[in-house]
Q: What sequence folds into this?
């Protein structure tokens, strides 16, 4: 019995922290968003200076800055929350905008008053 685990720790299945408090998926999302943001200034710089190498240079510089500064922001936002918090938050915001991705149709997006009582009297039932 000494060589057998009778329990499975919950942190065994958690995604490992890769860089600045972000998991691998979050690092990828942050780097891709930085690349996308850096493409437009890179294209403008390449057109103004006539150097096509400006496009990847500026794009990768923006990706690096987004990883550095985005890691600090992500660490602050995720403090004390579960690992799936970012994905659920993105899913919820997209569902509120009417974009139903990744099972967003199962989310409750309507807000309003909640009542536990019946609104009308039903004969034969409890009041």
A:
């Amino acid at each position: 019995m000494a060589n057998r685990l009778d329990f499975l720790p919950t942190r065994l299945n958690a995604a490992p922290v890769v860089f600045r408090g972000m998991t691998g998926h979050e690092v990828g999302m942050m780097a891709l968003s930085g690349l996308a943001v850096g493409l437009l200034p890179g294209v403008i710089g390449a057109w103004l200076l006539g150097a096509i190498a400006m496009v990847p240079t500026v794009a990768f510089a923006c990706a690096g800055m987004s990883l550095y500064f985005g890691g600090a922001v992500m660490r602050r936002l995720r403090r004390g929350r579960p690992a799936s918090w970012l994905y659920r938050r993105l899913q919820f915001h997209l569902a509120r905008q009417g974009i139903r991705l990744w099972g967003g149709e199962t989310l409750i997006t309507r807000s309003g008053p909640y009542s536990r009582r019946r609104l009308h009297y039903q004969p034969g039932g409890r009041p």
Notes: The radius of gyration is 24 Å.
